[in-house]
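Before surveying the methods themselves, it helps to consider a single example record, giving the amino acid sequence and backbone structure tokens:
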Amino acid sequence: MNWNVYLSGEIHTDWRQQIIDGAKEHNLPVTFTSAVTNHEASDAAGDILGAETSSFWRDHKSSKVNGIRTKTFMDKCDVAVVRFGDKYKQWNAAFDAGYCSAIGKPYITLHDKDIIHPLKEVDASAVAWARTPAQVVEILNYVIRAK
């Protein structure tokens, strides 16, 4: 079986690449998908539908266009990894975790211990909480290879 893993959340560090590289090192049969991680491109996704003078409507349209990708990939994944960084508030990551929880999709949260409290409900619905990308890789290795 080829596993489909959706990588959600923080876009300012290389955590996604660390997980992808780790899966390759373990020769795991995994396909990774993700939201658009280029911040400017994501913010401009709604511009396809015409320019807006209000930032609210620009964001609204971009969110809907981006939602086509994120909802499709989350619906089709076997497991999601939701990363919360400490520099920015990732409201979209929290929404993705809530969506996964609502549809019964297993997800792993990935964050530092200093934000356990604000994420307690998100973590409570997760199948695991990892602190490093390497731990995520080890979880995937165990789940896929049973080792």
Observations:
- Strands lie at 3-9, 30-34, 79-83, 107-110, 128-130.
